[in-house]
Each structure stands twice: as structure tokens, then as C-alpha cells.
Amino acid sequence: MHIGCPKEIKPQEFRVGLTPNAAVEAIAHGHQVTVETMAGAGSGFPDEDYIAAGAKIVGTAKEVFDTTDMIVKVKEPQAGERKMLREGQILFTYLHLAPDPAQTKDLMESGCTAIAYETVTDRNGGLPLLAPMSEVAGRLAPQVGAWTLQKANGGRGVLMGGVPGVGPARVVVIGGGVVGTHAARIAAGMGADVTVLDRSLPRMRYLDDVYGGTFKTSYASAGNTIELARQADMIIGAVLIPGAAAPKLISRAQLSELKPGAALVDVAIDQGGCFETSKATTHQDPIYDVDGIMHYCVANMPGAVARTSTIALGNATMPFMLALADKGWKKACEDDEHLLNGLNVHAGQLTYYAVGKALGIDVLSPQLALKN
Ligand SMILES: NC(=O)c1ccc[n+]([C@@H]2O[C@H](COP(=O)([O-])OP(=O)(O)OC[C@H]3O[C@@H](n4cnc5c(N)ncnc54)[C@H](O)[C@@H]3O)[C@@H](O)[C@H]2O)c1
Questions:
Q1: According to the 3-state scheme, what is the secondary structure of 221-233?
Q2: What is the DSSP letter of 245?
Q3: Smallest Cα–Cα separation from 366: which of 358, 342, 355?
Q4: Element (H, E) at 89
Q5: pLDDT tens column, 262-301
Q6: I want to staple 87 with a disulfide (CB 3.0 to 4.6 A). Which of 22, 37, 111, 219 is the partner?
Q7: What atom of ligand 1 comes closest to residue 127's alpha carbon?
């Protein structure tokens, strides 16, 4: 198969869909790889790395789209990219179609077969191509929170690990899933006193078994949440209710009960945020002050560490990308129901029920799409 990787064109997107290592593997499997010039530059992969891997570098995205059988990307295709997709071409990338009718319509009209990273599943009921970005955002959260806590940034002026004779920062993590667990581990590693709140008892049992000596757990009742929040120097919001907007767990009125200069890091901002006063910010202007409480609410946190994020995403996508290339999308999806769960659009029809429901579009079952 001929695999193509264009440069990402969404603003502030520095990741790339295919790493040079993934190109090496694809070529070793007998495939051809074409990459747009500078596609990897934002992640620290110059064209030379792809050439050394055996890939061909071309000057424009159009050449990538026109000559290849499968496009591997990071972000959903932008309007100009969608025009270049063609019937029968495979698109493997994040799509997030439910809130995006324009993209859905264009993908259906293109006739391409679009497999969305975010709906590929694993045998534990997880989302293996979303998890690496949650791991990155979770591990980054205490790092940006620690910076926010510095006096010059409007924070409380508290050091995460304290020093001998001075206690550490108190960090409360709300939501003990992928983001929350990684955030708690790093905050504890920085020497902070960390408590994770969750509403799932099985999850808290797991966290207590595995990380009992590293951080504490507490049930996320409204009473516990505000009690721990009052004592916190940093609160990390990491909740997720699948398919729903994040619940608001700290209200504007409650900000007056927090310590002045406390840092709120709302990782759940991409689902609307879990603090009432959260609004999405960018890496250029990441923090703002409401009533003396500093908020960090960047919706695309992994973008800050594009190289780590690209490599982590590439590690997760590579086996699926190789299966699609080796077997063709039909056989690959027939052999792997979890990859089939990623199928969102095929030959002009929507094949993912939740997106159809959100947009009021009829859906062809993915199993029937395999027979088309
Ligand atoms: N800002 C970013 O760049 C970025 C990057 C990655 C993920 N995220 C977001 O981070 C959030 C967490 O993602 P995840 O992968 O860790 O999800 P996850 O499903 O692994 O974990 C969510 C946890 O929240 C818990 N939870 C649900 N409701 C709760 C409540 N009311 N109180 C306490 N806990 C509650 C669940 O039991 C679960 O353990 C999501 O909104 C995700 O979209 C944001």
C-alpha cells in the first residue's frame, strides 16, 4: 500500500501522523511511504529522518493526497484537505465528527473510508488511541500547575515539594482515570501531598492497591470535594462522563472558599470544563485570574510537548496502521472488531451510530459496510 502523511495545517498543531520509525516499519512490511516536506519539523523530525527511513518527500499536501492509498494524520482534515480526499482512499486520523456536521458531510461526499482514532476500542473497554494523549495531558498538568503557582504568574507562591521544614503543596485531583492517575503520580513525584477524588469505587480500589503509598484517595461527594478543595494549593480537573459535558464541580461562589492564589488546572476543558469559571485558553495565553484564583484551561495540552505526543500517538497507532496497510481496511476490520469500531464513514455513508444520532443522519452498520 502507498501510505501518505501530509503536514498538519490546523493552527498550533505541531504533531505529525507518521514518525520516521513508523515509516521504517511500514517500508519493512513492503509498503511505500510519501511525506510532505516539513511534516515532522514541529515534532523535531526533519525531512532527512524520513528520507533515511526510505520515505519519499514531496513539496505539497496535494501530491500526498493525489498519489497515496491511505492518509495518516493527527487532526481532523480541514476544509481544503477534505477536497483532496477521493473515493476509496483510507483516512486514518482523529475526526471527532459528532459536533462537526460540515466535516461529516464533506467526508461522506468524498467517498473515502474514514477510520477515527477516538472511536477505536480495546478489549478492556478503553480507547487506546485517546489514552496516550490523556497520559500526556495528565503528566503535564502538575508541571503547568506548578508554574501557575509561582508568584510571578499570579499563583500562591508555593513550591510543589516544599523544602526541609516547610510542607509540600497540597494537590487535589478530581477524577482518577487516565489523566488523573498520571497527574497524581507526577505531582507526588514532585513531592506534593496528593489526594485523588473519584466516584467509582472499583477505580479507587485499583488506585489504592497500586498507588496506596504514593497518594491518597477520597470519594468525590460534593462535601468531600469542597472540603479538600479548601485546603488545596492546586486542583486538577480530570473527570469524564463519556458522551456528556463535564459536570461543574466547583462553582464561582465556591472560589471564595479556596486559598487565594490557588491554581485550578482544568484538563477536562475539552469537554466544557469541570469548574464553573473555566473557559478554554491557548498555549500563547494559558492562564487567567477569577477572584484571585488562577485558572489554566488549555484545550490542547499535548500540543505543548509535540515531540513526546507525536511519538506516544505513533506508538499507539502503528499496529493499526500496519494492519490497514498489510490487509486492506476490510480484512483488517473483519479481523479486529476494535478497529472496526473506528470506522466512521465509508463510501458516502456514515457508519458510526453515535455520530448519526448527534447529527440526525442515517447510519449504515459497520458490519454491512464490510460487505459493500
Ligand atoms: N485538555 C487536554 O488537552 C486534554 C487531553 C486529554 C484528555 N482530556 C480530557 O481529560 C478528561 C479526563 O480524561 P481521561 O482519559 O482521564 O478519562 P477517564 O474516563 O479515564 O477518567 C475519568 C474519570 O472521571 C471519573 N469521574 C466521572 N465523574 C466524576 C465526578 N463527578 N467526580 C469525580 N470523578 C468523576 C470517572 O470515574 C473516571 O475515573 C476528559 O474530559 C478528556 O477529554 C483533555
A1: CHHHHHHHHHHCC
A2: P
A3: 342
A4: none
A5: 999 999 998 889 999 999 999 999 999 999 999 999 999 9
A6: 111
A7: 15
Bridge pairing between strands 90-93 and 113-116: parallel
Q: Which amino acid is present at 349?
A: Q
- Tell me, in angstroms, the distance from the centre of ligand 1 to residue 82's CA: 31
Residue 163 forms beta bridges with which residues? 166
Rounded percentage of the chain residues whose pLDDT exceeds 90? 95
Q: How many residues does the chain have?
A: 372
Q: What are phi and psi of 307, to 5 degrees?
A: -70, -50
HEC string for 148-203: HCCHHHCCCCCCCCCECCECCCEEEEECCCHHHHHHHHHHHHCCCEEEEEECCHHH
The answer to whether the CB of 312 falls within 8 A of the CB of 178 is: no
CA 214 to centroid of ligand 1, rounded, Å: 20
Q: pLDDT of 17-44, one tens digit each?
A: 999 999 999 999 999 999 999 999 999 9
Which are the catalytic amino acids? 96, 270
Backbone dihedral angles phi then psi of residue 112, each to the nearest 5 degrees: -75, 170
Instruction: Determine if ligand 1 sits within 6 Å of the CB of residue 273.
Output: no
* C-alpha cell of residue 233: 494549593
Ligand 1: centre distance to CA 171 (Å): 17
284: Cα within 13 Å, side-chain hemisphere: 3
